[in-house]
Write a structure and sequence with these properties.
This protein is mostly helical and 121 residues long. It contains four helices and no strands. The longest helix has 42 residues. It is elongated, with a radius of gyration of 21 Å. The model has no long low-confidence stretch (mean pLDDT 88).
Length: 121
């Protein structure tokens, strides 16, 4: 996806966004993407630290033990695929909340910057 396609997609639900030129849309999207990534990574790190602090990381050790136990019982070509799917399944709940928060921030940020640009014009 090019920067212009991303700008069109992200500005799709913003009213009067057709009055903003493409260069400004791309500029707003670049800043929003940086902030979204920082927020997502920061929240995932905070979750990891909090999980590590709870009972000295017993939860993380338990999940790792499950995956290690699965790797001992699996043999053949599909072993790594099954382990990857299991790992994603275990970590998916930890990624959903930061993702929702980051996307919500991105949408509000873009809407706010678009309104500021339109009203200053």
């Amino acid at each position: 996806m090019t920067k212009e396609e991303r700008a069109k997609k992200w500005f799709k639900n913003i009213s009067n966004s057709e009055n903003i030129n493409m260069e400004k849309k791309v500029e707003i999207c670049n800043v929003a993407a940086r902030w979204t990534a920082l927020i997502f990574i920061g929240l995932v790190m905070v979750e990891f630290v909090l999980l590590s602090m709870v009972n000295n990381g017993v939860i993380l050790n338990y999940l790792a033990d499950i995956l290690n136990g699965m790797s001992k019982d699996l043999h053949g070509r599909g072993q790594y695929k099954i382990l990857a799917i299991a790992g994603v399944t275990f970590s998916l709940p930890l990624i959903i909340l930061p993702l929702i928060i980051a996307i919500t921030f991105r949408n509000k940020y873009i809407k706010s910057k678009a309104e500021n640009y339109l009203y200053r014009k």
